[in-house]
Here is the input.
Amino acid sequence: MSKDILSRLNSARIELLDLGLRNPLINFRTRLRKIDVVDELSTEIYRILITEGKPMTFIPAPVKSQDENGQDVLELFDESDPSSKMIFADGDEIDENGIAKRHIDVKLQTRFSPTSLHAKLLTLHNDAQTYIEEQGVNILFLALGFLHWYESESSDDEHRAPLILVPVELSRSSARERFVITYTGEEIESNLSLSEKLKREFSIKLPNLISDEDLSITKYFSAVNKKIEGQTRWRIAQNEIVLGFFSFGKF
Here is the structure.
């Protein structure tokens, strides 16, 4: 394919991007179908899921006690900060690199009860399969790291946008088995919609994500952080991790 045709295709692709705040790639909202992964490290998840190619599972928040009605009381964390530590994890062993054992296993921690977690995973699985059957495209991604940004210095509305999007699949061997998440092997994406919006409206050019064996997501986050350092309230939540739907269909 000639360079001229490739250039025109890329230009058309950019023009079709949805840069509005309704796009979860620009403004990821809490009401969306999703599962927040809590108290985990993006670097370790990337290593286990992509580099080592291992499947991972989801675990509910542990039960601490029961209330006066006999209902389970879960050990939760600060819900206003998705990257904060859970209470129950304070006594976990730390290795020589300062990483806790819970961060290097194949279990992804969540804030949900066992019943709620199963229901959410089942819904995501069924919806993902329906979309593949009807549209022929997988839109289920594990988002690693989020940019928290504002439209202006005077705005009080903080927006969240994912930075690295890993295409994944939810599956289980039988109805009695737990769901596992695996990397599909398709291209790992940076957030093209966010990149174009920041370029047009803030003159910020985010670095390219080179998806290969040498990809260092830590270096990528650092490079993004350098690009936004002029924005006083903007920040990167490197270990903010979400499983959800991100549609790239428009381009």
User: Anything to note?
Assistant: Residues 77-88 have pLDDT under 50 and may be disordered. The helical segments are 3-15, 42-51, 114-135, 192-202, 217-227.
